[in-house]
Amino acid sequence: MKFENKDKAYLQNRKTLEGELGIELWNIVDHWPLYCGIANLARNVAIIDLVRSTLDVPGHIAEFGCWRGANLMLLAKLMEIFDPHSLKEIHGFDSFQGLTTFATEDKDAAEEEGRYKGDLKGLQALIDLYELQDTIQIHKGLIGNTLPEFLERRPEATFSLVYCDTDLYEPTRDILTMLHERLSKGGIFVFDEWNIEKWPGETVAAREFIATHSDHYVQEHVRGTRQPNFVLRKM
To answer: Were both Cys, which of 16, 142, 184, 230 would link to 59 (CB 3.0–4.6 Å)?
Structure first.
């Protein structure tokens, strides 16, 4: 039967990984609609729709602020379903140290220092399990350092979807200013904490960017979900 050998290897590998992690995962994962909250499901449906809206836009996909890697893996798996033979790469940028650098524009968000610390080793194990090593590239470090280094190393790199989930002013500002020229026509900047009182820095950075680049973008509301909640689509 088609996929039989591949499925056997996958089931064995994930059983091994479950033992290494010391967590019983798969009885929940395989029945995830039973346990998933409606708000969380709505978020993932919205992200799927956003990816669909950019399938014909040339360029890679990037997420800034990966935390444990759930959204990064979703983006990569979606591309394996929707466009498995394309050269589109998935790039994840994160320090994996949690929130560490704050500007005055972030206001009380500075009280969340250390929050959202990721687990790169665990994420890499799951990337290996799903054989996504050639699709996902991880850039560990502060975005203000890793993004310009990447752009210098990859002068050809262009993007179709950029997911901004850093919560904070300075990294959001850097993402927008550095990738404006690298975002293809029809491509999108997606914001996860736009217009949310607890995280003002992301909105301030977006507003400043729009003030100087409004002729290049259409502003869109994301329907049916709390987050992501704002999109800039390049005209």
So the answer is: 184
Q: Where are the domains of the chain?
A: 1-35, 37-234
Higher pLDDT, 12 or 188: 188
What does the alpha-carbon distance between residue 172 and residue 202 come to, in Å, rounded to a whole number?
Answer: 6
Distance between CA 92 and CA 124 in Å, rounded? 12
CATH topology of domain 37-234: Rossmann fold (3.40.50)
CB-based contacts of 124: which residues, under 8 Å, 6+ apart? 138
d(CA 160, CA 183): 6
Beta-strand pair 183-191/230-234: antiparallel
Q: How much is the pTM?
A: 0.93
Instruction: Give which of 93, 85, 83, 68 is closest to 143, Cα–Cα.
Output: 93
Is pLDDT at 187 greater than 80 in this prediction? yes
Residues, the chain, total? 235
On the question of a cis peptide bond just before residue 228, with omega within 30 degrees of 0, the verdict is yes
Residue given tokens 């680049």 in the structure block:
213
Bridge partners of 198, per DSSP, are: none
Spatial CB neighbours of 70, under 8 Å, sequence gap ≥ 6: none
